[in-house]
Amino acid sequence: MKVIYRDEYTSQVDNAIGKSNAVVLVGHRRAGKSSILLQLSVQYTQSGNVIYIDMENPDFSHIRNASDLNAYIKEKIDDSTHNYLLIDEVQEIDEFEKTLRYWAKQDDVEVIVTGSNAFLLSSEIATLFAGRHTTIKVYGLSYQEFLLFYQLQDSDESLVSYMKWGGLPFLYQIPLDDIRSRTDYMGDIFNTIFVKDIVTRHKIRNINLLSNLAGFVAENCGKIFSPNSIAKYLKNGESAVTSGTIAEYMGYLCDTYLIDKVERYDIKGKRVFEQQEKYYFEDLGIRNYLCRGKNNNDIEKIMENLVYLRLRQLGYDVYVGQLNGKEIDFVAKRGDEIRYFQVTKTISSEETYEREYGNLKLIHDNYPKFVVTMDPTSQLINDEGIKTILLRQFLSQEI
């Protein structure tokens, strides 16, 4: 199998090591964390001793708990050089943190681990590693990585394929025209997340409700709603359910890195609202899989999801903006930087133009403002410094 490197993530790891902290790679299943860890193992072999443990490999089945892990590390450690301890799917080892906290503090040992399920939430990682950790979020393929993996040229056709299939790295091994195999793979990934990471772990009884909720979020990604509004919707359908149960189940979906909750941000008051959020999928292919057969191909929902993912890949914290009753699709923050974004397929009508550009004009600061579109006739628009950018360009460059 051809090896394709994701240097963006290995560079982040390189910058994080050497600080007596564990480095934790997190993200949804099959986002590519294991491949990145393998890439790191090859890279670090050139500068030290690599101890690589793959907990999905039966060869390591004897490592069941912290004591087993410690014994294995002591056997493999090399005191004459720098050591790199790499563990894939670390949550499979009971109480692993008891051992890794010690080794992460050693001057000659770097600890880098991956985990995919809800056991490695950011809030729990801080406790597990007593605050001595750096978390790196791994996403599926960016658009540029998609082109590289599939050996495609940047084109409208390539963009459509990316919007349809998303960024699960393994999919590049299945031909784009083998729709059945690709769909089956999507189904396998979702079912693993659904059953192993949610239903089994949390002992879910109302499986049908959880399944319907995942489908509801897929069909309504990019819309503002609350657990209470979902509960009312479902009450009008097949069953009554409390908003508390909805909130609990939504939390489980977010915990597995299947979907992200995006909070609303008051631009004028500079505060975050604590209710009525938006939700976006971390992989569009899985979102589209859940919407299959429902004629749910709202291009602007997909565009919004792509813009959100790209901003996250670029390291921004992302919010839905609110200003004087108007909505700004995204407020992106990274350090002292702020960017504002509106997303629309076309700018063909006066109403659309006023909504997208007019809302941005209400923001009276000097931070960059963008309208992301698929309308090729819009490129000449530069209204009061608001930049118009085609989606393909947006996905291909630093913003």
Task: Please characterize this protein's 3D structure.
The chain is an alpha/beta fold and 399 residues long. The chain folds into three domains: 7-137, P-loop containing nucleotide triphosphate hydrolases (Rossmann fold, 3-Layer(aba) Sandwich); 178-297, Arc Repressor Mutant, subunit A; 317-396, no CATH class. The chain has helices spanning 7-16, 33-45, 66-76, 96-104, 122-128, 143-150, 156-165, 179-202, 207-219, 227-235, 243-255, 284-290, 299-313, 350-361, 391-396, and strands at 22-26, 49-54, 83-88, 109-115, 133-137, 259-262, 264-266, 271-272, 278-281, 317-323, 326-334, 337-344, 369-373, 382-383, 386-390. The strands form three sheets. Strands 8-7-10-11-12-13-15-14 form an eight-stranded mixed sheet, sandwiched between helices. The protein has a five-stranded parallel sheet with strand order 2-3-4-1-5, sandwiched between helices. A hairpin with a 4-residue loop joins strand 7 and strand 8. Helix 3 (66-76) packs parallel to helix 4 (96-104) and helix 10 (227-235) packs across helix 11 (243-255). The mean pLDDT is 90.
**Average pLDDT reading:** 90
Q: What is the terminal-to-terminal distance?
A: 33 Å
Domain module count: 3
Q: Indicate the CATH class of the largest domain.
A: Alpha Beta
Which topology of the largest domain does CATH recognise?
Rossmann fold
Task: Give, in order, the helices and strands.
Answer: HEHEHEHEHEHHHHHHEEEEHHEEEHEEEH
How many individual β-strands? 15
